[in-house]
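User: I'm curious whether this sequence folds into something compact or stays loose and floppy. Could you predict its structure so I can see for myself?
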Amino acid sequence: MFYHLFTYLDRSFDLPGAGMFHYISFRTGLAFITALLISTLFGRRIINSLQRKQIGETIRDLGLEGQMSKKGTPTMGGIIIIIAILLPTLLLANLLNVYSLLMITTTLWLGVIGFADDYIKVFRRNKDGLKGRFKIIGQVGLGLIVGLCMYLSPDVVIRENRELRNAEQIEAVIYAKSDVKAPQTTIPFVKNNNLDYRKLFGWAGEQAETLGWIFFIFTVIFIVTAVSNGANLTDGLDGLATGSSAIMGVTLGILAYVSGNVNYAGYLNIMYIPGAGELLVFAGAFIGATIGFLWYNSYPAQVFMGDTGSLTLGGIIAVFAILIHKELLIPVLCGIFLVESLSVIMQRVYFRYSKRRHGTGQRIFKMAPLHHHFQKAGNAGIDALWQKPLQAIPESKIVVRFWIVGLILAAVTIITLKMR
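Assistant: Here's the prediction. I'll summarize afterward.
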């Protein structure tokens, strides 16, 4: 809103200072500060309100150190994150930009699904929350909206990059003279790092275009569902999902900036995405909101985000990466989410396999998701293939170590753009 207001004042009345709102860097910094202030200053009021309404977390005793002390801690704190993201974005982003609109839609869509899940758990005293199939339907619906919008919207375009080489090195990177609509993405660690999904169906002749876009839309649906659920599984320790998401948000903001700037895109030899730079404003609000939420969510947590926050954070990260055509970097950037999800899948599959074969189910980890494995001592009497560490690790140390791993993965994600 402010972006459009000050743009009008600058053009019509040449108001001093109004031209600052043309600069993405200025609006990004302002969005970050605004989101940070909202989540810290107003977050306390929301937490107090949740406490008055007795919206507390129900804890199952899993034998983890300090676990039962969390009982009654206010949940549904993801409301703080959502408000802190949306308000600065609505005030400072270009609301005519298709990428901004898709990110706002993603935040609201998954926020509603997560809120419904928490509402059923807290107010209806149903620990299972929203039925799994309804969550999946909601995530698939969002993926379908994003995929179809990228296919149908005339504003979602790219400019393909091409190298000019001599015998020894790249002389320059040039771009096509016109924008094109193509289901392309960036492949990490390879020399010619653009993948056009349509080329996977070259055998289909004239139908390759249609099949390529269909495959892309199904890819979007899978990524949105997987990353959203991965963030949900990661939200098990104080500050783990929040801090990890903040790190991913910084990385995605950098990728959006270089992808939306033709000079930096040319230097890195990646596709140029007109209009994608506007995503940096949303990224600023996202980073400010998550860091501000850590004020209350860090160990020992005064509030939990609940599914209201975790599903939303995961969905935002997934859609953001898809919009800048970097979805194949997600396994690296979101390695924490990926490993947490895989640990749950491996645990369940191996338990069923061993029970069917030996009559007694055996586990791979002492407990899944993976972060709980490190909270259990190796001599706790659990029949698991992997017993180390033998001593339980304090929760705060596990969280910080996961953050360090997340920082390493973020750095690797960025340098993949030049590591070929």
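Summary: The CA atoms of residues 1 and 83 lie 16 Å apart. Strands lie at 161-165, 170-175, 184-186, 194-196.
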